[in-house]
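Hi team,

Filling in the usual template for the complex we talked about on Friday. All components are listed, including any nucleic acid strands or ligand strings, so the model treats them as one assembly.

SUBMITTER: L.P.
PURPOSE: interface mapping
COMPONENTS: two
RESIDUES: 773
SEQUENCES:
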Amino acid sequence: MSALPRARELGLISCHVCGLVCRDNQLEDPACPRCSSALHRRKPYSCARTWALLIAAFLLYIPANVLPIMRTVSLGDVDDNTILSGVIELWQKGSPDLAMIVFTASILVPMTKFLVISTLLLSSQRGTPWARRQRAMLYRLVEFIGYWSMLDVFVVALLTALVQFGFFSEVEPLPGVVYFGLTVVLTMLASQSFDPRLIWDCQDQDD
Amino acid sequence: MTDQNPLNVGGNLPEPVVKHRRVNASWIWLVPAVAALIGLSLVINAWRQQGPTINISFQTAQGLESGKTVVKYKDVVIGKVVGIRLSQDHSKVIVKVDLEKSAGDIAVSDSRFWVVRPRIGLGGVSGIDTLLSGSFIGVDVGKSTQTQTDFVGQETPPSVLHDSRGKSFTLHSGDLGSLDIGSPVYYRRIQVGRVASYKLDDNGKGVTMKIFVDSPYDKFVSNESRFWNASGVDVTISADGLKLNTQSLATVLAGGVAFNDAPGPHPNEKEADENATFTLFDTESNAMAPPDGEPRYIVMRFDQPLRGLAVGAPVEFRGINFGSVVSVRMDYDEKTGHFPIYVGAVVYPDRLGRAHKKLAEIAKSKGDNDYMSYLIGGLVAHGLRAEAKTGNLLTGQLYISMDMVPNAPKIAYNPNARPLEIPTVPGSLDKLQEQMGQIVDKLSKIPFDAIGNNLNHTLADLDSTIKQVNGNVLPAFQETLKGANRTLSTANQTLGTANSALSPDSPLQQNLAGTLQELQRMARSLRTLTDYLNAQPSSLIRGRSKDAPLPDNGTPTAQPQQGSKP
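RESULT (copied from the run log):
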């Protein structure tokens, strides 16, 4: 089966916002005649942006894990927990299911995103036609799990708001949670700024 | 086919319009740069906050938890336990503590660390907050400048911290009593300090303790202060009645030290120096007594039984307690076959005040030895004797009383005997018993039978005498009384007559009134005569003149002359 024609080859350009397809008249800064939003053949500087955001997310992921995210005070017993120590504590205190959920949401998912996005970026920049469908699936996976990676932040925010019983029990957020939240936001921005069409932009050899 | 498609697809499609916008992709690299800056600042901050790491050894790691237990100074967290391990020889626990940078300078050689745990003692409860929050390590920051990283932790909190203001003093005592580290020190029943430490003396014959008196109370400790053990209840029964004396309920149970100035004026009183040494007395009364000075040992031989003389009984000289009995031993005298009792006593001559001072001076000037045995020999020759006296009639308790006995029999005195032997005289009760015996002897010699017979005879004689009196004397007496009665009635009649003569309507009374009127009239005519004679003395010679001229003023004669004026 021969390669399908690309929009560029057909001289077409589509609007990201309203979906209007225009004829590509090779202008410098084209804009949609209907909704006036900028038109791009591909997301501009997609790789550079994604890389920058990904690196920033990774840099912030380090303090997010090293610094404690939550302080639990119960009957005067002050306990500061990082993400990992919280997972360990949950596991040791007999809630392996909860520990698994937190571990997945807070460690597995961000790490997966880092790995997946950097794999996508590297493979797209090299222009290799290797496993394009699988890579596209990976991209969809990253988009999907992105919604759920704020779990830890939500937990801390909810507990802080709900558990305020003074001396008996109190939960307060610590700086780690801010870095974790920033990490999650940056990874989501990174996956958004990646243009999945780049996966298919290599030299057509296989199809 | 592929060539036509683009034309066919884009034939009637709209064309994009131009919209200028700033295009610059490199700004996105600011995001990782900022993230890197944040990370770097965190690392630098952590590095800058990093203080020294110290190791503290404890007997046990009870209540300590790695990564959780904190080190607090004045309730401020200044460090955290980061590791707990056993020492090489497994005898101790080494606690590794990361101190904060700001508290780095507390790791000096005289800083002390201890674990704050809940402690419940008789003196109170401390560290109750750690029941819930868990133990923490307390620190008392030293004043040294020499840094140190390995410390030996204290098992109990130090009672005196480096930054507490006040003074330390040293107390010597025979035993510790119920005192402990942290026991309170009272001044006029106000807690002003506490016992900081104690240790057995090197020779094992006493206890030396350090107390700490807080500022500003430390200025009340003077060189005249006396310290006593305020533990327990002091019950005294005296002439004033039963007296119960305690410092506070806590000291009754837990013990304490109290101090106060000795009674009396203190001309040389001044504030005690830091680390001044004092003696800790057993009771307040002992503490307030004048200083005892050097003890002396004396022995006394008694030949009579000493029931009621116990070890500890007081030894008095002329009523002043200056020692106590320390031993009561029986001996056998082969020569006489008696069982003498030797009573040993410790006396404190200083308690006799100036008497002892003067005697000592005299003895010294005469070249006497330290025991003043020759001087005492002189006193013995003058009648110094010891005597066992009854102190309490109910219980029969004896005490030793020394006094100068007049006309005491001469006794051989050995000035070289050690300890000095003071001769004795039999006790007052023995003497009393002896005298009572003599009295009873004398009483038994009285011929009560003969006395009774004589008395009987006398009474019979008396009886006959009374009979005689009744028979003869009384009738005569009755006659005499009747005569007297008559005489009295006659006297009564005489008085009635006199009374009627003096009544107002009696002729005697009227005659007297007439006579008085005559006399009055005579007196009046006599006065007229004297008046006349007074006015005209010549009448006495010439007789009465016809007319007496009136005194003349001359005014009527002057009237016509005044009226003749035209």
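MY TAKE: Residues 1-7, 554-566 of chain B have pLDDT under 50 and may be disordered. The radius of gyration of chain B is 60 Å.

Thanks, L.
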